[in-house]
Design goal:
This protein is mainly beta and 125 residues long. The protein is 10% helix and 53% strand. The protein has a 9-stranded antiparallel β-sheet, with helices on one face. Keywords: Signal.
Length: 125
């Protein structure tokens, strides 16, 4: 799995009010409306986040892999489940679980990658 997924999860935790200490020093330039966040980073990677009720839709373009991708997140209380698909056929699934000020994140992909990380409002990711 390419490194874009942890960055996306981190972006979503930022939207939820959590800090992400692992973000690079050159942040993306973003434009936001009531239901849409669109960002482009200095390398040319782009993504947008649209919210509709308890579902969040993400779409983007990854420069290094020259691929488009889409991800859907569904929130159920303190749990958020997500599934994604890239233009090269890679698929991924995972979840984020809020526990107090901490968010636990796990994911795996059809490319054989899997991982987990924890984010906190105090210490970041």
């Amino acid at each position: 799995m390419r490194p874009i997924l942890p960055a996306l999860i981190c972006s979503l935790t930022l939207l939820a009010g959590h800090a992400c200490a692992a973000l690079p020093s050159t942040l993306a330039a973003c434009t936001r409306s009531a239901t849409l966040l669109a960002c482009v980073d200095p390398q040319g990677n782009a993504y947008s986040v649209a919210a509709a009720g308890s579902t969040t839709y993400l779409r983007g373009f990854e420069v290094s892999g020259k691929r488009y991708w889409a991800q859907t997140n569904s929130r159920y209380g303190q749990l958020t489940f997500f599934t994604g698909l890239a233009s090269d056929g890679e698929a991924w699934v995972g979840y984020s679980q809020r526990v107090g000020w901490t968010t636990r994140n796990r994911f795996s992909s059809s490319g054989g990658s899997r991982g987990q990380f924890t984010c906190s409002r105090i210490t970041g990711c």
